[in-house]
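Dear support,

I submitted the protein below through the web form. The confirmation email said the job was done, but the results page showed an empty box. After a refresh the structure appeared. I'm attaching both so you can tell me whether what I see now is the final result or a partial one.
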Amino acid sequence: MAYDPCFAQLDNNHLLTRWQIYEEHNRNAVLWMERIEFELMRRMEADGATAIAHPLLTCELKTPSPTYDTGKLRGLAELVPLDVLATGFTPAHEEVVMVPDKWNATKFKTWVKYGDAVAKVISDAAIPGTARVRITRKAESPPSQAGLRPGREAP
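What the results page shows now:
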């Protein structure tokens, strides 16, 4: 952060008032950015797209891996061989504190080869994450100068 002689002329009250104004502008800008992200996500989902081309920004729709309902996954114990189950499931046990069941999604998702019943249990246990739009500035992209007075640069 550089010294700005413009601010040296202002008293503390004026500086704090400006800070309050800029903070509110920033809060409003974040709200508008969220609305824009929502609209971009809506359009991408409607178009079946996972990215939008732009010369300066990268815009991608990111869908996180689902979490799983561990209660529903318990049905796998009756559907896959025990030695296979042991590769992707650690039953509840006590260490110093009670450790809950642990399921290894990387392992149990491969068990669909054991049939439709297994695939259905895994599918029913899936709790999908919420998709989010991620917009990032491309490395070679300069900061926008929109809204700045001539002779001023973005901070």
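Response: this is the final, complete result; the empty box was a page-load delay. The chain has two domains: 9-64+130-137, 67-127.
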